[in-house]
Amino acid sequence: xGKVTVSLIKADVGxxxxxxxxxxxxxxxxxxxxxxxxxxxxxxxFHVLSAGDDLELVMSHYRGVDSExxxxxxxxxxxxxxxxxxxxxxxxxxQDLLSDAxxxxxxxxxxxxxxxxxxxxxxxxxxxxxxxxxxxxxxxxPMFKIFADxxxxxxxxxxxxxxxxxxxxxxxxxxxxxxxxxxPEEMYxxxxxxxxxxxxxxxxxxxxxxxxxxxxxxxxxxxxxxxxQIAGEYVGKDDPVALVRSQSGLPALGExxxxxxxxxxxxxxxxxxxxxxxxxxxxxxARCTRFDGPPRVVAAGFQLSNGRLVGPVDLFDDPGFDYTxxxxxxxxxxxxxxxxxxxxxxxxxxxxxxxLPNVLKRLEERFERVE
Length: 371
Ligand code: F6R
Ligand code: MG
Ligand code: MG
Fold this sequence. Notes:
By secondary structure, the chain is α+β, with helices and mostly antiparallel strands. The chain has two domains: 1-118, Alpha-Beta Plaits (2-Layer Sandwich), CATH 3.30.70; 123-360, no CATH class. It is 27% helix and 26% strand. The N and C termini lie far apart (75 Å). The site of fructose -6-phosphate has 9 residues, from α9. One magnesium ion (MG) binds at residues 12, 15, 19, 53, 92, 236.
């Protein structure tokens, strides 16, 4: 059998109430469309999930990344869910579908996309991460920890298969260019870039030459769509998703999850305009309530079996992450007390993509020159 592809494609096609959660009827609509796609052989297997107000399609197939058929199927699922969202008058119905007609690929049309094509190993554990109320750069810190930080990933120190390190493909999402950096040799250069998480984002991670997985086969991928750049105006946050392969020469599943035990600060909370901690939660707790948040991450664990997605296991549904959640809530409370002040509110450059400039426009003519 050829290489398998896992495609995680997501969109916010309507929330309820407000931007809190996805209505189950939207999920059943998406399931109906993807079942048809499975029957007609477009995909092998799928799961429809949700994180906050984002509808998440996890699909497996043998058509490679950027497959027109698979993207068309996902688009149809989002359209069907949008139609139901409109009937139910859900909030922001169809908001992430920025075009009326599908044109071959959902990238650049609003949905977020993370796809990995690879030779399925003897046993293939995979984690699908989904975040709500934040942006793609929110994955920079955990991806760095998983694949480059020996204090997170013991295997980098004690397993010869990981000891050589990994390569990171980093995108400059403002200038639409990319660079590949190797760790541990170029770790400081990598950090110099990805610390600026609103601009430089980790797109993919690759093994190095000599690893038992081919060096051109990505082992992790993050969605890097930027909705405000696509739409030209603020239409909601580009809540990101990611796929990470694990075990047997890659970080262990527990090393992958360990990177989320620290609730780091990310941007995207309330009106896409505030910094707050990202809290790992179970699917049932992925409802953004307080101040439309705080930002959340959920994790679905799978084993692949000849293309079948065996799972999911709700990985953060575990008291092992209670301490992280408590810490996240303390940090959320601390940040909230700043109200409209930075650094809770985003810095001015980032606010330029929001509704703030419209407020300031009215003051423009009242400004006087100061000598
Ligand atoms: C949506 C989000 C929310 C909204 C907020 C205001 O992703 O982050 O915080 O930005 O609820 O929404 P509107 O302007 O639609 O009332
Ligand atoms: Mg929404
Ligand atoms: Mg969302």
